Amino acid sequence: MSKSxxxxxxxxxxxxxxxxxxxxxxxxxxSLIMISKQTESVEKDYYEKDLRYEEEIQAQxxxxxxxxxxxxxQDTLWVQFExxxxxxxxxxxxxxxxxxxxxxxxPLNLDNNARQFVYAGNLAKGLxxxxxxxxxxxxxxxxxxxxxxxx
Length: 151
Prior knowledge:
Elements: H1 12-36, H2 46-51, H3 53-63, E1 68-73, E2 76-81, E3 89-95, E4 104-107, E5 115-119, E6 126-135, E7 140-142, E8 146-150
Antiparallel strand pairs: 1-2, 2-5, 3-4, 3-6, 6-7, 6-8
Protein name: FixH
Organism: Raineya orbicola
Pfam families: FixH (PF05751)
């Protein structure tokens, strides 16, 4: 029986070297994926917003007096106040956690039943966060954040 010049068996040292090489390649691939992944803040002015945090807390406390319900039906969001409110100006903010370039704001324009409908036919599919802000002559109000998943 003749022995082949290339042995088909690996010794212990070769197996360890191959295992370490595979592990290093795996770590390098993961590192490249993490570096190439685009990460952006949800808010560009997060530092300034943090400084105004106490005002936001008070606005949320003020808004707790006026509960808001959010309903979805097919491609429409329905913002419903449980009671009529007096407001000078207001807005409904829509923002995407994964892409701040798609964020937008529409004016608050409630009908006689203290509700507003928002059509979502042209919105990108995925998760949207919605928040209502308004103010009267004395106070500012800010609702909780509602998460809206458009399929």
